Amino acid sequence: MTKTLTITAVVLVVFLGICYWVISDKQKTSVQGVGESLTVVQHYLGMGNLKASSGLMEQVRYDIESKTNAINKFYTLPSIRRSWKDQLLRYDSLGKHLKKRTDAAVEALSYVADLARQGHYQMAEEKLRDGTIESASEDRLSQVLARYVQRLKFQDFRAADDAASQLDSLLPEELWANDSTNAFWTLVNEQREANRTKQGRIATEVKQLAAMAVARESYDFKPSLRGRTMIWDFTKNNVDLAYELLGDDLRASLWDQQITMFCIIQRRSIEIGRYSISNEPGYKEKMTIGVVYWPQRKSPGVAEVWGGEPVYSRPVRYTPEYGSAVNIKNWIEGLPRK
Known about the structure:
By secondary structure, the chain is α/β, with parallel strands linked by helices. Helix content is 56%, strand content 15%. The chain is built from 9 helices and 7 strands; from the N terminus they run αααααααβββαββββα.
Protein backbone atom coordinates (compact mmCIF):
# COMPACT_ATOMS: atom_id res chain seq x y z
CA MET A 1 0.00 0.00 0.00
CA THR A 2 2.76 2.37 0.98
CA LYS A 3 4.62 1.51 -2.19
CA THR A 4 1.54 2.24 -4.28
CA LEU A 5 1.09 5.61 -2.60
CA THR A 6 4.71 6.43 -3.15
CA ILE A 7 4.49 5.59 -6.86
CA THR A 8 1.27 7.61 -7.16
CA ALA A 9 2.91 10.55 -5.43
CA VAL A 10 5.93 10.38 -7.71
CA VAL A 11 3.73 10.20 -10.82
CA LEU A 12 1.66 13.13 -9.57
CA VAL A 13 4.77 15.20 -8.88
CA VAL A 14 6.17 14.39 -12.31
CA PHE A 15 2.83 15.23 -13.92
CA LEU A 16 2.57 18.53 -12.06
CA GLY A 17 6.18 19.27 -12.94
CA ILE A 18 5.51 18.69 -16.63
CA CYS A 19 2.35 20.86 -16.46
CA TYR A 20 4.28 23.61 -14.69
CA TRP A 21 7.07 23.40 -17.28
CA VAL A 22 4.54 23.60 -20.14
CA ILE A 23 2.76 26.60 -18.55
CA SER A 24 6.06 28.36 -17.82
CA ASP A 25 7.31 27.72 -21.33
CA LYS A 26 4.07 29.13 -22.75
CA GLN A 27 4.41 32.21 -20.52
CA LYS A 28 8.02 32.63 -21.58
CA THR A 29 7.04 32.37 -25.25
CA SER A 30 4.37 35.04 -24.74
CA VAL A 31 6.89 37.41 -23.15
CA GLN A 32 9.39 36.77 -25.93
CA GLY A 33 6.71 37.38 -28.59
CA VAL A 34 5.85 40.78 -27.13
CA GLY A 35 9.56 41.62 -26.86
CA GLU A 36 10.21 40.69 -30.50
CA SER A 37 7.24 42.81 -31.64
CA LEU A 38 8.54 45.79 -29.66
CA THR A 39 11.95 45.35 -31.29
CA VAL A 40 10.27 45.62 -34.70
CA VAL A 41 8.39 48.73 -33.52
CA GLN A 42 11.71 50.25 -32.47
CA HIS A 43 13.14 49.44 -35.91
CA TYR A 44 10.18 51.08 -37.69
CA LEU A 45 10.52 54.17 -35.50
CA GLY A 46 14.18 54.41 -36.39
CA MET A 47 13.22 54.29 -40.08
CA GLY A 48 10.60 57.00 -39.57
CA ASN A 49 7.76 54.65 -40.56
CA LEU A 50 5.19 55.90 -38.08
CA LYS A 51 2.33 54.12 -39.84
CA ALA A 52 3.88 50.67 -39.39
CA SER A 53 4.95 51.56 -35.83
CA SER A 54 1.45 52.66 -34.87
CA GLY A 55 -0.20 49.59 -36.37
CA LEU A 56 2.17 47.17 -34.66
CA MET A 57 1.87 48.99 -31.31
CA GLU A 58 -1.89 48.48 -31.49
CA GLN A 59 -1.31 44.75 -32.02
CA VAL A 60 1.13 44.65 -29.08
CA ARG A 61 -1.45 46.41 -26.89
CA TYR A 62 -3.98 43.69 -27.73
CA ASP A 63 -1.40 40.97 -26.99
CA ILE A 64 -0.56 42.51 -23.61
CA GLU A 65 -4.21 42.79 -22.62
CA SER A 66 -4.95 39.20 -23.64
CA LYS A 67 -1.87 37.69 -21.97
CA THR A 68 -1.59 39.67 -18.74
CA ASN A 69 -3.96 37.44 -16.75
CA ALA A 70 -2.17 34.30 -17.91
CA ILE A 71 1.19 35.64 -16.72
CA ASN A 72 0.17 37.32 -13.45
CA LYS A 73 -0.33 34.07 -11.56
CA PHE A 74 0.98 33.17 -8.10
CA TYR A 75 2.97 30.28 -9.59
CA THR A 76 4.69 32.34 -12.31
CA LEU A 77 8.50 32.15 -12.13
CA PRO A 78 10.16 35.34 -10.79
CA SER A 79 12.35 35.54 -13.90
CA ILE A 80 9.27 35.56 -16.16
CA ARG A 81 7.60 38.19 -13.95
CA ARG A 82 10.67 40.42 -14.29
CA SER A 83 10.85 39.93 -18.06
CA TRP A 84 7.15 40.73 -18.41
CA LYS A 85 7.54 43.88 -16.32
CA ASP A 86 10.50 44.92 -18.49
CA GLN A 87 8.41 44.52 -21.65
CA LEU A 88 5.55 46.55 -20.16
CA LEU A 89 7.99 49.36 -19.32
CA ARG A 90 9.45 49.10 -22.80
CA TYR A 91 5.97 49.24 -24.37
CA ASP A 92 5.19 52.36 -22.35
CA SER A 93 8.48 54.00 -23.36
CA LEU A 94 8.02 53.23 -27.07
CA GLY A 95 4.43 54.47 -26.91
CA LYS A 96 5.60 57.81 -25.55
CA HIS A 97 8.33 58.00 -28.18
CA LEU A 98 5.83 57.20 -30.95
CA LYS A 99 3.49 59.94 -29.73
CA LYS A 100 6.39 62.40 -29.58
CA ARG A 101 7.45 61.53 -33.14
CA THR A 102 3.86 61.73 -34.39
CA ASP A 103 3.34 65.16 -32.79
CA ALA A 104 6.64 66.31 -34.28
CA ALA A 105 5.55 65.04 -37.69
CA VAL A 106 2.28 67.01 -37.49
CA GLU A 107 4.23 70.12 -36.51
CA ALA A 108 6.76 69.61 -39.31
CA LEU A 109 4.10 69.02 -41.96
CA SER A 110 2.13 72.07 -40.89
CA TYR A 111 5.23 74.28 -40.70
CA VAL A 112 6.63 73.16 -44.05
CA ALA A 113 3.22 73.51 -45.73
CA ASP A 114 2.92 77.11 -44.52
CA LEU A 115 6.41 78.00 -45.74
CA ALA A 116 5.91 76.27 -49.09
CA ARG A 117 2.57 77.96 -49.69
CA GLN A 118 4.35 81.30 -49.34
CA GLY A 119 7.18 80.19 -51.61
CA HIS A 120 9.76 80.10 -48.79
CA TYR A 121 11.27 76.78 -49.87
CA GLN A 122 14.81 77.72 -48.91
CA MET A 123 13.70 78.41 -45.34
CA ALA A 124 11.80 75.11 -45.21
CA GLU A 125 14.88 73.21 -46.42
CA GLU A 126 17.05 74.94 -43.83
CA LYS A 127 14.64 74.03 -41.04
CA LEU A 128 14.75 70.40 -42.09
CA ARG A 129 18.54 70.38 -42.36
CA ASP A 130 19.39 72.07 -39.07
CA GLY A 131 17.25 69.63 -37.07
CA THR A 132 14.99 72.24 -35.44
CA ILE A 133 12.11 69.97 -36.44
CA GLU A 134 12.49 66.69 -34.56
CA SER A 135 11.37 64.49 -37.46
CA ALA A 136 14.35 65.78 -39.46
CA SER A 137 16.66 63.04 -38.23
CA GLU A 138 18.27 60.61 -40.65
CA ASP A 139 15.22 58.49 -41.34
CA ARG A 140 12.87 57.72 -44.20
CA LEU A 141 10.20 60.20 -43.10
CA SER A 142 12.53 63.19 -43.02
CA GLN A 143 14.14 62.16 -46.31
CA VAL A 144 10.77 61.97 -48.08
CA LEU A 145 9.68 65.27 -46.54
CA ALA A 146 12.89 66.94 -47.72
CA ARG A 147 12.38 65.51 -51.22
CA TYR A 148 8.81 66.80 -51.26
CA VAL A 149 9.97 70.34 -50.44
CA GLN A 150 12.75 70.20 -53.04
CA ARG A 151 10.48 68.91 -55.83
CA LEU A 152 7.79 71.48 -55.06
CA LYS A 153 10.46 74.19 -55.05
CA PHE A 154 11.33 73.27 -58.65
CA GLN A 155 7.64 72.84 -59.59
CA ASP A 156 8.26 69.17 -60.34
CA PHE A 157 4.66 68.25 -59.56
CA ARG A 158 4.89 64.62 -60.65
CA ALA A 159 7.77 63.88 -58.27
CA ALA A 160 6.09 65.95 -55.52
CA ASP A 161 2.94 63.82 -55.94
CA ASP A 162 5.09 60.70 -55.62
CA ALA A 163 6.71 62.04 -52.42
CA ALA A 164 3.27 62.86 -51.00
CA SER A 165 2.15 59.28 -51.68
CA GLN A 166 5.24 57.99 -49.89
CA LEU A 167 4.44 60.22 -46.91
CA ASP A 168 0.97 58.70 -46.89
CA SER A 169 2.55 55.25 -46.55
CA LEU A 170 4.72 56.40 -43.62
CA LEU A 171 2.20 58.31 -41.50
CA PRO A 172 -0.65 56.83 -39.42
CA GLU A 173 -4.04 57.07 -41.15
CA GLU A 174 -5.53 59.12 -38.33
CA LEU A 175 -2.87 61.77 -38.93
CA TRP A 176 -4.36 62.62 -42.32
CA ALA A 177 -7.54 63.77 -40.56
CA ASN A 178 -5.51 66.68 -39.18
CA ASP A 179 -6.34 69.91 -41.03
CA SER A 180 -2.72 71.05 -41.29
CA THR A 181 -1.68 67.67 -42.67
CA ASN A 182 -4.48 67.73 -45.22
CA ALA A 183 -3.33 71.20 -46.28
CA PHE A 184 0.11 69.75 -46.89
CA TRP A 185 -1.35 66.91 -48.96
CA THR A 186 -3.34 69.29 -51.20
CA LEU A 187 -0.50 71.77 -51.63
CA VAL A 188 0.76 70.06 -54.79
CA ASN A 189 -2.58 70.55 -56.53
CA GLU A 190 -2.79 74.14 -55.34
CA GLN A 191 0.68 74.90 -56.68
CA ARG A 192 0.02 73.09 -59.96
CA GLU A 193 -3.18 75.09 -60.51
CA ALA A 194 -1.46 78.37 -59.58
CA ASN A 195 1.33 77.54 -62.04
CA ARG A 196 -1.22 76.72 -64.76
CA THR A 197 -3.05 80.00 -64.11
CA LYS A 198 0.16 82.01 -64.41
CA GLN A 199 1.24 80.27 -67.61
CA GLY A 200 -2.21 80.73 -69.14
CA ARG A 201 -2.27 84.41 -68.22
CA ILE A 202 1.18 85.14 -69.66
CA ALA A 203 0.50 83.11 -72.81
CA THR A 204 -2.80 84.91 -73.41
CA GLU A 205 -1.13 88.31 -73.04
CA VAL A 206 1.61 87.47 -75.57
CA LYS A 207 -0.35 85.26 -77.99
CA GLN A 208 -0.68 87.86 -80.73
CA LEU A 209 2.97 88.84 -80.36
CA ALA A 210 4.02 85.17 -80.54
CA ALA A 211 2.15 84.63 -83.82
CA MET A 212 3.21 87.79 -85.63
CA ALA A 213 6.53 86.63 -87.10
CA VAL A 214 6.93 84.36 -90.10
CA ALA A 215 7.60 80.81 -88.91
CA ARG A 216 11.08 79.40 -89.50
CA GLU A 217 12.24 75.81 -89.51
CA SER A 218 13.59 74.81 -86.10
CA TYR A 219 16.96 73.68 -87.49
CA ASP A 220 17.48 77.25 -88.74
CA PHE A 221 15.98 79.05 -85.71
CA LYS A 222 17.83 78.83 -82.39
CA PRO A 223 16.48 81.49 -80.01
CA SER A 224 18.46 82.05 -76.82
CA LEU A 225 16.82 81.11 -73.55
CA ARG A 226 16.46 83.92 -71.05
CA GLY A 227 15.75 82.65 -67.59
CA ARG A 228 13.84 79.40 -67.34
CA THR A 229 10.94 78.27 -69.51
CA MET A 230 7.18 77.73 -69.57
CA ILE A 231 5.21 75.92 -72.30
CA TRP A 232 1.56 76.69 -73.02
CA ASP A 233 -0.45 74.73 -75.58
CA PHE A 234 -3.22 76.86 -77.11
CA THR A 235 -4.57 73.82 -78.97
CA LYS A 236 -5.40 72.22 -75.60
CA ASN A 237 -5.67 75.38 -73.48
CA ASN A 238 -3.34 73.88 -70.93
CA VAL A 239 0.27 73.51 -69.86
CA ASP A 240 2.07 71.14 -72.23
CA LEU A 241 3.34 67.88 -70.76
CA ALA A 242 6.87 68.74 -71.91
CA TYR A 243 7.00 71.44 -69.21
CA GLU A 244 6.98 68.87 -66.41
CA LEU A 245 9.58 66.77 -68.23
CA LEU A 246 12.12 69.60 -68.35
CA GLY A 247 15.07 69.56 -65.97
CA ASP A 248 15.15 71.72 -62.85
CA ASP A 249 17.48 74.19 -64.59
CA LEU A 250 14.93 74.82 -67.38
CA ARG A 251 11.52 74.53 -65.68
CA ALA A 252 10.31 77.97 -64.55
CA SER A 253 8.45 78.30 -61.25
CA LEU A 254 5.68 80.56 -60.05
CA TRP A 255 8.21 82.97 -58.62
CA ASP A 256 10.55 83.32 -61.61
CA GLN A 257 10.77 86.90 -62.85
CA GLN A 258 12.54 86.22 -66.17
CA ILE A 259 10.82 83.63 -68.38
CA THR A 260 11.08 82.37 -71.94
CA MET A 261 7.51 81.46 -72.90
CA PHE A 262 6.90 78.87 -75.61
CA CYS A 263 3.38 79.10 -77.06
CA ILE A 264 2.14 76.16 -79.12
CA ILE A 265 -0.04 77.95 -81.64
CA GLN A 266 -0.86 75.12 -84.00
CA ARG A 267 -0.51 71.34 -84.35
CA ARG A 268 -0.93 69.72 -87.76
CA SER A 269 -0.57 66.21 -89.13
CA ILE A 270 0.99 66.53 -92.59
CA GLU A 271 0.50 63.70 -95.06
CA ILE A 272 3.86 62.78 -96.53
CA GLY A 273 2.91 59.68 -98.54
CA ARG A 274 0.75 56.57 -98.81
CA TYR A 275 1.42 52.87 -98.35
CA SER A 276 1.51 50.88 -101.57
CA ILE A 277 -1.01 48.11 -100.82
CA SER A 278 -3.46 49.62 -98.30
CA ASN A 279 -3.23 53.12 -99.80
CA GLU A 280 -3.44 54.43 -96.22
CA PRO A 281 -1.69 57.78 -95.51
CA GLY A 282 1.41 58.31 -93.40
CA TYR A 283 1.46 61.50 -91.32
CA LYS A 284 4.20 63.58 -89.74
CA GLU A 285 3.37 66.09 -86.98
CA LYS A 286 4.25 69.74 -87.49
CA MET A 287 4.02 72.17 -84.60
CA THR A 288 4.10 75.97 -84.76
CA ILE A 289 5.65 77.44 -81.62
CA GLY A 290 5.92 81.14 -80.81
CA VAL A 291 8.73 82.25 -78.50
CA VAL A 292 8.39 85.30 -76.25
CA TYR A 293 10.59 86.79 -73.53
CA TRP A 294 8.69 87.75 -70.39
CA PRO A 295 8.24 90.34 -68.92
CA GLN A 296 9.90 92.24 -71.82
CA ARG A 297 7.12 91.09 -74.21
CA LYS A 298 9.63 90.67 -77.02
CA SER A 299 9.60 87.79 -79.47
CA PRO A 300 12.72 86.46 -81.20
CA GLY A 301 10.47 84.61 -83.65
CA VAL A 302 8.30 81.60 -84.43
CA ALA A 303 9.51 78.05 -85.03
CA GLU A 304 8.17 75.16 -87.08
CA VAL A 305 9.14 71.98 -85.26
CA TRP A 306 8.62 68.55 -86.84
CA GLY A 307 7.91 65.22 -85.24
CA GLY A 308 9.28 61.87 -86.37
CA GLU A 309 8.69 60.14 -89.70
CA PRO A 310 6.06 57.35 -89.93
CA VAL A 311 7.60 53.93 -90.48
CA TYR A 312 8.76 53.32 -94.06
CA SER A 313 7.22 49.84 -94.30
CA ARG A 314 4.74 47.92 -92.16
CA PRO A 315 2.44 44.86 -92.24
CA VAL A 316 -0.67 45.53 -94.33
CA ARG A 317 -3.40 47.21 -92.30
CA TYR A 318 -6.10 49.66 -93.25
CA THR A 319 -5.44 52.49 -90.79
CA PRO A 320 -3.32 55.65 -91.08
CA GLU A 321 0.22 55.66 -89.70
CA TYR A 322 1.60 58.49 -87.57
CA GLY A 323 5.19 59.35 -86.81
CA SER A 324 6.35 60.18 -83.29
CA ALA A 325 5.02 63.41 -81.77
CA VAL A 326 7.12 66.55 -81.69
CA ASN A 327 9.64 66.32 -78.86
CA ILE A 328 9.52 69.93 -77.60
CA LYS A 329 11.62 69.00 -74.57
CA ASN A 330 14.60 67.90 -76.66
CA TRP A 331 14.34 70.95 -78.91
CA ILE A 332 14.30 73.36 -75.94
CA GLU A 333 17.18 71.56 -74.24
CA GLY A 334 19.25 72.09 -77.40
CA LEU A 335 18.75 75.86 -77.47
CA PRO A 336 21.55 78.24 -76.38
CA ARG A 337 21.22 79.91 -72.97
CA LYS A 338 21.84 83.56 -72.26
